[in-house]
Amino acid sequence: MKVFIDRLADAIHYQTLSGKYGCAVTTTWSSGGEDVVFYLNRVLNYLGILSLEGISVAIGNDPEVIDREEEKARKLGERLAWALRTREKYPGQPKIIEENGRF
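^ that's the sequence the OP posted. Answer follows.
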């Protein structure tokens, strides 16, 4: 993933996705997923994308946890669709995106 993100340098510098909306979705075996969601949402901000809170699921030895978390994922998808329709604002993110653009 790091190599992929490194290849986004031009898109990050030019903020080619400015004004778009997105969110990070991760899976993990046991822990660290929320940290990855936070990091990936920052990468989205670097691209000019306004990011929703995201979701992480720790699977562990229970692959059926994905099915139990489906409703949470569905609600996140609905929130993303709502943000797109209403052009929802996210406090603090426009400032981060603007500062990155000036850099």
